[in-house]
Design a protein that fits this description.
474 residues; five-stranded parallel β-sheet; 30% helix; globular; single chain; alpha/beta; 22% strand; Rossmann fold
Length: 474
Amino acid sequence: MTAGAAPDRTEAAVLGRLGVRLLRAGEAAHGADPATLLGLALRRNPRRAHLLVSRMLGKHVPTDPRLVRGAAMLLGGLVADALAGRPTRTLPVDLLHCAVRGDPGAAVALHRLAGGRGADPAGAAVVLGYAETATALGHGVAEALQDASGSGAGVDYLHSTRRPVGCIATAGGFTEAHSHAAEHLLLPADPALLCDDRPLVLVDDELSTGTTVLNTIAALQKRSARRHYVVAALVDARPADGALVEHVRDLGARLDVVSLARAEVTLPSDLIRRADAVRSELDSRGAGLARAEGAAPPGGAPEPDRRLALAELGLPGALPTGGRHGFTPADHRTLSAALPGLVDDLVRAGRLHADESTLVLGTEELMALPLRVAQTLADAGHRVAFSSTTRSPAVVVDEPDYALTSGITFPAHDDPVDGPGPRFAYNLGRAGVDPPWDTILVVVDPPADTGTLRTGLLRELAPLATRIVLVVTP
């Protein structure tokens, strides 16, 4: 399996029947090609029929981690330009396209280039990533801004969450109307994080209508008015009508929008009817479904080949495992300093081999730390890809040019407040083929290290790898 490889461009039956078209927006010919960066799939969601599947996010497609982090930091460079009020830098479009198409040398070069492009000052800011898809993306943007600001002082990161925590008060929230799980919470450990006048950067993987962004800004302006917002997305697919900027201006603030690509998504007027018909037909013949979990095997839940605690391997116990409650410049520096030794110990304890294929699998919002582990493994010469589980139900079809060709489903394993509904992972490979991976490293935090994890996700992953290593954060 080639991490991040783009499929052939032939017209597939499902996509042809849906009639959704993804084009490069005419006024953004200098940006990347959205048809290279994105694939298309069909949601199982009555609010929105189509799903734009990023090939550089590490959510629905196993991807070279250097591409995932490089794209995030490249986006952060564009944010730095917007914050500083200078012309937007030129993107390395050809290099980005080659990396997305699966060229590992291009992924390495992109990662190095993006990490070294933040020398120009950008100033202080708060970065807010959207759960669940953009949690790691937001980390990368914040890192790039820290580099751009020199010392990194004054660039704090927070991501929204769908997991309430009893000991931390909710500082706000907003609705993502089209999402399968619509309600977002803001849970900073320090409520003052959202109460100053620093510019606020909103980070998402794709911007479709701007409604979620507007809901967010309206909620934040009521809490503590700011003068400047920047929205950063890998792909901006809004209609070219300027309405979002005008609405934010009406709220008393300035808005800049930056992206790696501008896209035009054309939808037929009867898309919902078409989508319902396709789903019904596929479901009636047992196609289009992610493989469902079975009952627990006799004798109890299966155990992973190894269970490793990152606290015992040198990850500082006081370091947050992500940005759910805030992540400071000092936290980013601590993580970067700890990673080489941590990964060396992880390789030895997990018996990982550089010449074998390894998938590092994050779980829902927990993406940033698994991504950095995967990227550090790749930098050390390992054959590694990065992906994550998700809440989003979608149709799986093994057809050329369709973005989700395989999938598994399993129950939630972290006792979520909204109940034990199903969770998913896509494009990990087909059971019984090779298997696709020598090792799958599954990274969870302690609330997700449960018996349901073993009877659900780990059971479904077992046919896809020679061995499963469970990694638990502090």
